[in-house]
């Protein structure tokens, strides 16, 4: 019983710290919250919250063996993810937000649920977290039950974390009274998105 409590407490602390810290997902929902508002960002929030646990469980139960047999696949996915994130950063930075109260229309659209789910598979930070969680919190004998438990823990942690970061973006938008200010905010978000890739690139 004590060992189970220690495992659970440690896994929860890990999930919260990994979900709440700045990274591609949180940067993107912050920008989305500022640009589109909380309600329109909900599919993005749910896509992350369900997509990452699904990815973690899939890797633990099946894809992990494939990666051990063909480690180059992980490298390919990593660089595809980095390239995609750089494109997203450019997209965020190059689009001027249009405030609704100024009668503007934004040509960008928030990510859909499916897009956010699929994005987890090309998100380098998501891969690092998933692999770290599997190595640290699963054993060969209990990998099925432990990976399911980890998935549920991360689902709840992600849901609260990305909702918080989205709310931060919504709050920032209320303070920024001009389209130029919103654009500068999104430039900062794009910069943070690029900065979040540096440790992954340097770690190569």
How many structural domains does the protein architecture include? Answer: 1
Low-confidence stretches: 100-104
Sketch the major β-sheet: none
Average pLDDT metric = 81
Total of DSSP H or I helical runs spanning 4+ residues = 9
The outline comes out as globular
Looking at how many chains there are and whether they match, the oligomeric state comes to single chain
Report the end-to-end length measured between terminal Cα atoms. Answer: 40 Å
Query: Any idea what the radius of gyration is?
Result: 18 Å
Helix-strand pattern: HHHHHHHHH
Report the β-strand fraction as a percent range.
under 5%
Q: List how many beta strands DSSP finds.
A: 0
As a percent range, the share of helical residues equals over 70%
Structural class: mainly alpha
Q: Overview of this structure, please?
A:
This protein has helices at residues 2-20, 24-36, 38-69, 72-94, 113-119, 124-137, 143-175, 179-195, 198-202. The longest helix is centred in the C-terminal third of the chain and has 33 residues, at 143-175. The chain starts with a helix and ends with a helix. Helix content is 80%, strand content 0%. The protein is built from nine helices and no strands. The protein has one domain (27-202). Helix 2 (24-36) packs antiparallel against helix 8 and helix 3 (38-69) runs antiparallel to helix 7 (143-175). It is mainly α and 204 residues long. The model is unreliable at 100-104 (pLDDT under 50).
């Amino acid at each position: 019983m004590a060992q189970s409590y220690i495992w659970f407490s440690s896994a929860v602390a890990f999930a919260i710290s990994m979900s709440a810290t700045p990274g591609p997902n949180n940067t993107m929902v912050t920008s989305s919250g500022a640009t589109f508002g909380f309600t329109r960002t909900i599919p993005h929030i749910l896509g992350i919250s369900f997509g990452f646990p699904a990815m973690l469980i899939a890797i633990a139960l099946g894809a992990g063996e494939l990666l051990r047999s063909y480690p180059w696949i992980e490298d390919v996915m990593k660089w595809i993810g980095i390239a995609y994130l750089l494109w997203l950063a450019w997209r965020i930075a190059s689009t001027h937000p249009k405030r609704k109260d100024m009668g503007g229309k934004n040509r960008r659209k928030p990510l859909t649920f499916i897009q956010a789910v699929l994005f987890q598979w090309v998100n380098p930070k998501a891969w690092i977290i998933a692999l770290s969680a599997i190595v640290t919190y699963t054993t060969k004998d209990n990998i099925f039950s432990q990976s399911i438990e980890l998935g549920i823990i991360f689902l709840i942690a992600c849901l609260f974390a990305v909702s918080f970061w989205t709310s931060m973006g919504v709050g920032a938008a209320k303070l920024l009274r001009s389209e130029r200010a919103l654009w500068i905010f999104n430039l900062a978000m794009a910069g943070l998105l690029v900065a979040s890739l540096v440790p992954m690139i340097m770690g190569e």
